[in-house]
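Intended use. Records like the one below are meant for learning the mapping from a protein sequence to its folded structure. Do not use them to infer anything beyond what is encoded.
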Amino acid sequence: MPLNNNLIEATKTFVKTELADAEGGHDWFHIERVYNNALIISKGETVDTLIVALGALLHDIADSKFYDGDDTVGPKKATQFLQKHKVEITIIDHVVNIIKNISFSANIDKINTFNSIELQVVQDADRLDALGAIGIARTFNYGGFKNRAIYNPEIKPNLKMTKEEYKASTAPTLNHFYEKLLLLKDTMNTKTGRKIAEERHNYMVSFLEQFFAEVNGEK
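Structure written out for the chain above:
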């Protein structure tokens, strides 16, 4: 289905208002980057562009990490907004399923019962924003927001976390690179997503090499 410009603009306005006071890594500018990434990736896939656009714009409308782990708030807000704008129920259901299944934590220890190319596109777009220079900036911004240590050599990354452990983690920010960010490259769904992820992954590896060289007094 082609883009409905009036609906898209109304959605953008809604998201900007809802996320006006959001943490810097999950604010409107994050949403805008994911939206743009999703449209770029869509060009190489056969997708319903309207569902991709709505899924990208609404995917973080109420991230559970900012609602005491409650992952029902986002789907509820998205549903109410889309119903208000008289969007078809099949589209609403699809967008809500994207919101429910997009996150890294949602896929830990889980066999997904829902999948679609639209989900795959939005998921790749979202994960790309956790990689590269922006991914590094977002990671340390969130770590500061949660008052976490930057690095502690005595606290090793937990590479076999359950979903509950992942969501409850208070580990130093640098651990997050090993517990999530460096794993994302191999989870990409689309050809375009994989290509961009490879470049951004390599940038993060270079950053970590420089980080530890400075920590160890080598540079």
